[in-house]
Amino acid sequence: MEQPAISFALRLAHLEDAPACAAILGLLPDWFGIPSSNDRYAEEIPRLTTEVAVGGGQVLGFLTLKRHFAESGEIYVLGVRPELHRHGIGTALVRWAEDTLRAEGRRFLLVKTLGPSHPSPHYAATRAFYRARGFAPLEELPDLWPGNPCLILVKTL
Known about the structure:
The chain has helices spanning 18-26, 35-44, 89-103, 121-132; strands at 9-12, 49-55, 58-69, 72-80, 108-114, 136-145, 148-156. By secondary structure, it is an alpha+beta fold.
């Protein structure tokens, strides 16, 4: 169940927001527990289009977009401070991604996450989050991420 919304604003990330975004990944070890992957995300945050949710003078969450083709974009990484899960921040960031890509004339939004053949309850919640926002599973790739099945979810914009 969604908790009451808290006060926050969305804006494009500034270069100086990158450390705060990377720190959020460190607060989410059940989702972002592979240091080399976190380092790669942190490097990409300032290079790709990133939106941050800001409240109380701090970054509360962020979403980084990757564009692959003229028709599609990907939620490359999405993180929200754990104490603020279920307060509307992730949903607002996903809506921002949808609106941004739709305005560019793109037709599809995708996200990759840990597939259902892995028993993680944390990723079961992640898949439920995306399903509730209209994403549908497209394919589970057992070998894309060694040892971790990758589920591709897609949404028509």
